[in-house]
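Figure 6 in text form: structure in, sequence out.
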């Protein structure tokens, strides 16, 4: 719909996945997994409604489509977003606070230890980033800032990150997602998929 999809496509191709843009129900139906990129969540929410994608997307996600939301994409996945003028997709049992670190000028970078990603910390870029809180019992924390605030989590086949792995040259997070999508497509159980 909007945001840094081109950067995500580059990373997906770098880890050997076939990637394409999704703006129609037919394109959505053709996917085994979906990334909702960083951008502007108010715009993405409006466009999902305008393109009649909101309900089909909710249905696909409820029937198991793996989805990863980065920043604005994470906002779209949350069940509860206090400061969004339209309903989000609302499929993850989390609350996401938009612009939790302040304005564009308060953007920052940090090295994070991420559960499921080996070989050292991941350099994370935060741009008017949200924070994840109120995690439901089925949501697993994947990464936290030093002060304990949650910036990455997983619930079943859904991943949410406050930061933008697509804006770095490190494809490890994309590899993690592609492995999850492949495992789901093969019908492998959740536990095995993360092993
Ligand atoms: N602040 C934006 C929003 O609320 C998200 C910013 C981003 O995706 N980098 O939608």
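Output sequence:
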């Amino acid at each position: 719909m909007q945001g840094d999809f081109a950067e995500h496509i580059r990373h997906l191709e770098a880890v050997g996945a076939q990637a394409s843009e999704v703006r129609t129900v037919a394109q959505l139906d053709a996917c085994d997994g979906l990334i909702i990129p960083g951008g502007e969540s108010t715009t993405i929410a409006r466009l999902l409604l305008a393109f009649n994608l909101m309900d089909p997307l909710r249905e696909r996600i409820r029937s198991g489509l793996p989805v990863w939301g980065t920043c604005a994409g994470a906002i779209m996945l949350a069940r509860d977003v206090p400061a969004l003028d339209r309903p989000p997709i609302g499929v993850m049992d989390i609350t996401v606070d938009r612009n939790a670190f302040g304005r564009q000028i308060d953007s920052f970078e940090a090295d994070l230890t991420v559960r499921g990603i080996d070989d050292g910390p991941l350099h994370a870029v935060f741009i008017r980033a949200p924070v994840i809180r109120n995690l439901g019992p089925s949501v697993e924390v994947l990464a936290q800032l030093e002060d304990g605030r949650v910036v990455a989590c997983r619930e079943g086949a859904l991943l949410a990150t406050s930061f933008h792995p697509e804006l770095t040259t490190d494809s490890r997070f994309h590899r993690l997602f592609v492995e999850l999508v492949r495992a789901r497509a093969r019908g492998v159980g959740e536990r095995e998929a993360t092993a």
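Caption detail: The domain at 5-194 is CATH 3.40.50.880 (Rossmann fold).
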